[in-house]
Amino acid sequence: MQTDLSCRLQEVKERGTYRSLRHGRGPVDFFSNDYLGYTQNLALQHYAKSLMEGYPHYFMGSTGSRLISGNYPITEEVEACIAAHHEVQSAMLFPTGYMANLTLFSTLPQRGDTVILDEYVHRSVLDGCRMGAATRWKFRHNDLNHLADLLARAKGRIWIGVESLYSMDGDLAPLVDMTALAQRYGACLLVDEAHAIGVFGLGLVKELGLSDQIFASVVTYGKAFGQHGAVLLGSKTLKNCVVNFGSPFIYSTAMPIASGLLIQHAYATFHSDSTAQEALADRVRYFEQHALGESASGSPIKPIYLSKDACRAAVFNELEDQGISCSYIKSPTVPIGKERIRICLHAFNTHAEIDSLVGILKKYQ
Fold this sequence. Notes:
AON_synthase_class-II; PyrdxlP-dep_Trfase_major; 2 domains; 3-stranded antiparallel β-sheet; PyrdxlP-dep_Trfase_small; pyridoxal phosphate binding
């Protein structure tokens, strides 16, 4: 068995797609998902410290799954607060966004149903679908005509899975038109808002006034909100369905109480102080004004496409040498031929840091 595993690893090394864990980062961050800089927010840190000093047991394990010993009144109060923020009937907390998507897409679609996914959705969505027995199709990225063609051919109940802000390409789903298309064919739209919350208000679903037209959405807190965990938003019936049929939820230990309270405080910070949101919007505009070929999408995720692996590697290495951390995204995370340098902008980045970044990128474009 060890030999078989070694052979598998050797194959990916020969393809140039071997992954390894890295230590450390440069002083200039253009690669984390900490868009608003909330992991550095002193008010949030002070709240966490006071919570730890006053209620240290909140940071310990929850002792079991939500259906056994891991459900607490405080957790349900936090969920009710989150639901109110997003103007939906119910909210259900999960330890990770991956688990939330795994639960959603393995629980709702049934045998005889059809799930139609944007080709660039998160891997967790695909893995969730693979746990179920529904027919699974993909449509070309953000291509409404292709989606309409598949909707016209779909059988059973129809589910559409998309991201609102795509994690690798940094572009937005046409949610308004997509919602209208779903309604025309009687399909249920499921939206992954992992990268949109905090960047576009509390997510594009709410910003576009679609909360009552989307069947369900997933929001994660490990990115702009600087916390840990995720939430599934939807109807009370959806929540009850997950409690009864959602295997990843049923058989997993619940998140600690402190995680929910820190998430709740992040919402309060977001609503009471817009400094970080304004700073992020400014940095995005500044980058779009100075980088070559940048369109004004408003997204902090900026993929940089270069023609050859050697060129991408040279850019990545020079950035690293200058203390600038970014991501070199390779296949199979993205399709072959779509490899890229992925830039993430943050509220705490300075114009001078962006100038240094853009100066290096322009040398290779």
